Amino acid sequence: MLIAEIDFCVPADIDEIYYVERTCFEVPWGRYAIARDVEDPGKSVYLKALLRCEIVGYAVLSRNEGTAHLMNIAVLPDFRRMGVASQLMIANEEIALEWGSKRMRLEVRATNRPAREFYDKLGFSFKRRIRRYYVNGDDAFIMLARLPLSITKRTYESDE
Q1: CA distance 80 to 65
Q2: Dihedral-angle region of residue 11 (phi above 0 means left; psi in -120 to 50 means alpha; beta otherwise)
Q3: pTM here?
Q4: pLDDT tens digits for 65-118?
Q5: What is the model's pLDDT at position 158?
Q6: Beta partners for residue 46, in sequence order
Q7: pLDDT given at position 27
């Protein structure tokens, strides 16, 4: 397991976050959308995972009526299954609990089995399927977990 430094993103991080986004996703979020959110963090919180001063992952969390919403989480392929996503989730959990959230929800591609298994181990459960949710036509699973999450050593070992 790697120990990443988890911190809040700042505008100087936008290009690195965008690089992670483009590397990790077939249809990435636009740089403009990321920049807008990071520069005006009113609705969402961007966290970064740093190793040797380089961003290797990031996560976005927002809140809505007592439920924290994991909008996105991405870890560069060379750093997956090393605990980075779990560390980002621990930080997201802390923020959500500080907000007073009782639950966390997310959308995940129905075809992304490693991510779904990772979320299962954190205590997320399937709630419903949304057909053709993603731009490329993939379905999404809506998953929900009660807070606090079920983060264990076993979760770190199977980190997505």
Answers
A1: 32
A2: alpha
A3: 0.91
A4: 889 999 999 999 999 999 999 999 999 999 999 999 999 999 999 999 999 999
A5: 52
A6: 60
A7: 85
Q: Is the pLDDT of residue 128 over 60?
A: yes
- Can you list the positions of beta strands (E) in the chain? 5-8, 44-51, 54-64, 67-75, 103-109, 125-130, 140-146
- Give the separation between CA 134 and CA 123, rounded to whole angstroms: 24
- CA 120, CA 145: separation in Å to the nearest integer? 9
Report the amino acid identity of residue 132.
R
CB 135 within 8 A of CB 29: no
Q: Rounded to an integer, what distance in angstroms lies between the CA atom of residue 119 and that of residue 36? A: 28
SS3 percent helix, strand, coil of the chain, rounded to 5, is 35, 30, 30
Q: Which residue has the tokens 């380089």?
A: 54
